[in-house]
Amino acid sequence: MKRFDLTGKVALITGGSRGIGAAISLALAEAGADIAVLFRSRRPEAERIRHLSADMGRRCELIQYDLADLDGLESVVDDVVQRLGHLDVLVNNAGIAHLLPFDKVTHDVMDRTLRVNTMAPFFLAQAAARRMINRHQGGRIINISSTNGIVAEALLAPYNASKGALELITKSLAIELGPHAITVNSVAPGLIETEIGEGFELDPDFERYAIEHIPLGRYGSPEEIAGAVVFLASKAGKYTTGQCIVIDGGLTCDQFPRLQFAKKN
Q1: Distance between CA atoms of 22 and 62, rounded to whole angstroms?
Q2: pLDDT of residue 171
Q3: 10-14 and 34-39 strand pairing
Q4: Active-site residue identified among 53, 159, 219, 234
């Protein structure tokens, strides 16, 4: 459909080589956008996205960079513009999480979490917005947040804080960039089948317990997040700004998992 067509657009996706980021990269390419995929490590996965994008007839540039290094973010955006001509869409997707009791959180853990999850998206948005404003063609900034930015979760205090801050950054930038026809929104995934939680040391019963709390009865897939990003990046989303689209299978709408305890008539 034309309202979702991104032909001629250029998108930068951080953490765009795997998990939710890979699904977003490929969905934007499928919709017609040329893409720049920022990744920190594991080049073969980034190369896979480049090959799949090329099969769709799309240009895909790979940029290897550690988002914790805030000083080089302006240069990252310059690099994208130099390689692909301009920048229309920024997707701040990269994120990290550590499962720790709050009294075990070190300065380094807190610092890196906030740098990657909150400060890098802010300063990338700042750099991207400058180019979008100078081009006078509007633009889209899409922050991949989390349900942890809306409802806290034990053992994830730094992650919760980083995503909560990202939600208010989203709204703040939406206000300031609205006069320039630049929309700023967030997408908040719930429990999605990705690698981010694979290193968490939890009882094997956690997955069963978690699924009992999700009305749709399963984890989501990365592809189920990507559609919302395409919407927000396209003409269909041009009057949507300062909003958070929650994609969590109903997780945050169910205060207590009461349904399974209801008496059967």
Answers
A1: 12
A2: 98
A3: parallel
A4: 159
Of 17, 163, 186, 234, which one is the catalytic site residue?
163
Residue 70 phi, psi (nearest 5): -70, -25
pLDDT digits (tens, 9 = 90+) for 102-122: 999 999 999 999 999 999 999
Low-confidence residues in the chain, pLDDT < 70: 1, 196-199, 265
Identify whether 239 is a catalytic site residue: no
Token code pair at residue 175 = 């206000």
For this structure, is 75 an active site residue? no
pLDDT at 231: 98
- Find the catalytic residue in 145, 146, 162, 186: 146
Q: Which residue has tokens 């980034």?
A: 46
Paired strand residues for 141: 90, 184
What is the structure's pLDDT at 198?
A: 61
DSSP character at residue 116: I
Phi and psi for 227 in degrees, rounded to 5? -60, -40
Structure-token pair, residue 44: 């073969």
Global pTM reads 0.95
In the chain, the number of structural domains is 1
Distance, CA of 111 to CA of 99 (rounded, Å)? 15
Phi, psi for residue 240 in degrees, rounded to 5? -105, 120
Look up the CATH number of the domain holding residue 117.
3.40.50.720
**Rounded Cα gap, residues 206 and 218, in angstroms:** 13
Per-residue pLDDT at 234 = 98
What's the confidence (pLDDT) of residue 174? 98
The per-residue pLDDT for 207 is 87
Alpha-carbon gap, residue 16 to 223, rounded angstroms: 13
Domain that holds residue 62: 2-249+256-261
